[in-house]
Amino acid sequence: MGQRAQVVSREKRRGMIEPGHPKLSLSRQCRLLRVSRSSVYRRPKGESAENLALMRPIDKLFLECPFYGSRQMVRQLWRDGVCVGRHRVRRLMR
Fold first, then answer.
1. Which among 20, 37, 38, 72 could bridge 68 via Cys, Cβ 3.0 to 4.6 Å?
2. Short-list 10, 9, 64, CA closest to 35
3. Are residues 33 and 13 in contact, defined by beta-carbon separation less than 8 angstroms?
4. pLDDT class of 15 with cuts at 50, 70, 90
């Protein structure tokens, strides 16, 4: 039987990159490992404390009414005294 190809996670491949390698440029390493160059330079940030605080009431409401979309969620949040826009709620609900 043939050998099975191993799948290496993106994080592990990113960790294999050596920025100061004497023979391989960073671009070449990224190409070989199939990692985007921008992901090597920029690390993703988490959500802000303000957004995390806003997600709590959204989660609570969603558990009570899982059929609420972003528009109904915003209306209910406004009724509860939380002033927030629909697009922000939609992004946080994702």
1. 72
2. 10
3. yes
4. confident
- Which pLDDT tens digit goes with each residue over 60-78? 999 999 999 999 999 999 9
Kind plus residue range of the DSSP H or E element containing 6 = none
Q: How far, in Å, CA of 31 to CA of 43, rounded? A: 19
On whether the CB atoms of residues 58 and 77 are closer than 8 A, the answer is: yes
- C-beta of residue 86 within 8 angstroms of C-beta of residue 45: no
CB 16 within 8 A of CB 33: yes
Residue owning tokens 């988490």: 46
User: What value, to the nearest 5°, has the Cα angle with vertex 11 and ends 92 and 50?
Assistant: 25
CB of 19 closer than 8 Å to CB of 26: yes
SS3 at position 84: coil
CA distance 94 to 92: 5
Does residue 53 have a pLDDT over 90? yes
